[in-house]
């Protein structure tokens, strides 16, 4: 006999979110989601994000998911959900499970096609869920009879596929009681591989590895999304193979692993790294995603004739494909059965052949804040377990050879590349794990798109170190096309005064922040114009972990890291 219990649809949805580790829901109040917000606010285990707008809320949920494993977003029907669409699309492109909850009109008005506000006024109240079917792996308009099953289905599909899910909840059924299975736990593990096919794949892999003379490993984003950092490290250790990451895979391998050689991105890799990869006769590609920004604009050289591809649900060994063989299951088997004869002594290989890992060129002498100096210097200030968030564009390209510390998380939207993403993402990441130091690197133009979330950071008492690069323009777009055009210019702001403008010290905001954030304070907030000023400000900021910091870094308007120049030449816009 099935053990059942009674609950409401709203409470059941929150219960399922908490089961997958979500303790913050980002979003904006709107008339169709207010009933659900009542339930959410009464739940003492869930924090309401209280974002400035829906797009920012979607970005914040994305950043939260990158740290916590999944995120949640709440908007209202029509205007709210469409405002969030760009952010949710980014989560889809970058493979992140964000559960998007949409407060909908009453059930009878949906079925009757009522001409309600926030709709197109044509009676089609399902128009927006149809749009979201392109932005989510699973979607559901909840009904009383099927709500529990629908909720479970969307969340399970989202977590299994690492893609967003959409749940529309009519405002009149939020508090409706339903009977649910009291013992039913969500199972979002990836479906098991077909045993015979998996065994065939394993044998093909072992045989291929045994025949290789110069094998390497390239770890990429899908291994990161499948939470396989441990397995990647174990494979590197048992094999001794040199290990590389891609831009999307930064963070999947700790820089102190003896095998770690750096970031491979085709022709724009550091020359030594490119030569090492080109010299390999076998590549174990773990979770590869060969998009332009991850491959040096399609200049990477991973021929099928020398590549074993491990993916979420398929494995390819040279020219043979093994469907429904998941790397989450297969890589541990490769580790277990790794042939003794194929193991490499990495220390001997480094000493006799490879030499030390490649490094960025040394910074030219001087005291000017140039980006090549910054990317060489910033690792000195990053502690273990950091979260490093880099805005798309000039900064993300510059960061591609950044080696982050042990147990750290690197966040940059290389694939979707929506400018402004990083500021709300920083809020989400900081709320996902308050024990980590969070570092944001953002350009002045991107900052202007989503600056409102600074006020939400102050509200929630999170403590990132914000490094804003003021180079007075959209530099990456100037490098891509027509540098003298005026459309890449925008108003100059007093960036270092952002905390004051957003009311950091206003009594009403301090009261709303609450006593539980009493240790929170405002730290460094200043312009820095020289390397010495930057270094002094960073030392001060690191000594104040319970403060939020803002460094406005005054940089030359035409300065960019070497990696930026290389990429913009290849994009050829």
From TrEMBL:
Alphabetical list of Gene3D superfamilies matching this protein: 3.40.50.970, TPP-binding domain
Stretches assigned to the Thiamine pyrophosphate enzyme central domain: 202-314
Free-text remark on how the cofactor is bound: Binds 1 Mg(2+) per subunit.
Organism, as annotated: Absidia repens
Lyase among keywords: yes
GO BP: any one term: aromatic amino acid family catabolic process to alcohol via Ehrlich pathway
Domain Thiamine pyrophosphate enzyme TPP-binding span(s) in chain numbering: 403-548
Domain Thiamine pyrophosphate enzyme N-terminal TPP-binding per the UniProt entry, residue ranges: 9-114
Protein name in UniProt: Thiamin diphosphate-binding protein
Superkingdom, natural source: Eukaryota
Protein family membership: Belongs to the TPP enzyme family.
Cofactor(s) recorded in Swiss-Prot or TrEMBL: thiamine diphosphate; Mg(2+)
GO MF annotations, alphabetized: magnesium ion binding; pyruvate decarboxylase activity; thiamine pyrophosphate binding
Keywords: Decarboxylase, Lyase, Magnesium, Metal-binding, Thiamine pyrophosphate
Residues where Mg(2+) binds: 444, 471, 473
Lineage of source species: Eukaryota, Fungi, Fungi incertae sedis, Mucoromycota, Mucoromycotina
GO CC annotations on file: cytosol; nucleus
């Amino acid at each position: 006999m099935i053990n059942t219990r009674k609950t409401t649809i709203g409470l059941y949805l929150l219960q399922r979110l908490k089961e997958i580790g979500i303790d913050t829901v980002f979003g904006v109040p709107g008339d169709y989601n207010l009933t659900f917000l009542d339930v959410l606010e009464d739940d003492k285990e869930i924090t309401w994000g209280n974002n400035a707008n829906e797009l920012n809320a979607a970005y914040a949920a994305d950043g939260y998911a990158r740290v916590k494993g999944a995120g949640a977003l709440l908007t209202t029907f029509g205007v709210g959900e469409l405002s969030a669409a760009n952010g949710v699309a980014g989560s889809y492109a970058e493979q992140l499970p964000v559960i998007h909850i949409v407060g909908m009109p009453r059930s009878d008005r949906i079925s009757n096609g009522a001409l309600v506000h926030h709709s197109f006024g044509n009676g089609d109240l399902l128009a927006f869920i149809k749009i979201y079917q392109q932005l989510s792996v699973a979607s559901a308009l909840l009904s009383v009879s099927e709500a529990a099953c629908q909720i479970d289905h969307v969340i399970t599909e989202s977590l299994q596929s690492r893609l967003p899910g959409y749940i529309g909840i009519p405002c009149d059924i939020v508090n409706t009681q339903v009977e649910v299975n009291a013992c039913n736990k969500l199972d979002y593990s990836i479906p098991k591989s077909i045993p015979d096919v998996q065994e065939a794949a394993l044998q093909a892999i072992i045989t291929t590895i045994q025949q290789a003379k110069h094998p390497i490993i390239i770890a990429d984003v899908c291994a990161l999304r499948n939470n396989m950092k441990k397995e990647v490290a174990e494979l590197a250790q048992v094999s001794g193979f040199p290990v590389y990451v891609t831009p999307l895979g930064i963070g999947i391998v700790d820089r102190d692993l003896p095998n770690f050689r750096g970031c491979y991105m085709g022709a724009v890799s550091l020359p030594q790294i490119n030569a090492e990869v080109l010299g390999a006769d076998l590549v174990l590609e773990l979770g590869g995603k060969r998009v332009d920004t991850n491959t040096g604009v399609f200049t990477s050289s991973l021929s099928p004739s020398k590549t074993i591809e491990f993916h979420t649900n398929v494995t390819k060994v040279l020219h043979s494909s093994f469907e429904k063989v998941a790397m989450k299951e297969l890589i541990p088997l490769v580790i277990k059965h790794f042939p003794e004869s194929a193991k490499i002594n990495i220390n001997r290989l480094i000493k006799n052949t490879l030499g030390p890992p490649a490094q960025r060129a040394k910074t030219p002498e001087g005291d000017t804040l140039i980006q090549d100096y910054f990317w060489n210097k910033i690792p000195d200030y990053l502690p273990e377990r950091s979260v490093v968030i880099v805005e798309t564009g000039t900064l993300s390209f510059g960061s591609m050879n950044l080696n982050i510390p042990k147990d750290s998380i690197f966040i940059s939207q290389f694939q979707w590349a929506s400018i402004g993403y990083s500021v709300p993402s920083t809020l989400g990441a900081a709320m996902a794990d308050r024990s980590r130091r969070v570092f944001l690197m953002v350009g002045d133009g991107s900052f202007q798109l989503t600056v409102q979330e600074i006020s939400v950071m102050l509200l929630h008492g999170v403590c990132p170190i914000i490094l804003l690069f003021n180079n007075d323009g959209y530099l990456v777009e100037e490098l891509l096309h027509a540098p003298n055009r005026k459309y890449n210019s925008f108003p100059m702001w007093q960036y270092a005064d952002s905390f004051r403008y957003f009311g950091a010290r206003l009594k009403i905001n301090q009261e709303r922040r609450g006593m539980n954030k009493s240790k929170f304070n405002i730290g460094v907030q200043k312009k820095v114009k020289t390397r010495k000023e930057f270094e002094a400000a960073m030392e001060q900021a690191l000594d104040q972990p319970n403060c939020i910091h803002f460094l406005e870094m005054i940089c030359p308007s035409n300065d960019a890291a070497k990696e930026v120049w290389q990429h913009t030449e290849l994009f050829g816009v």
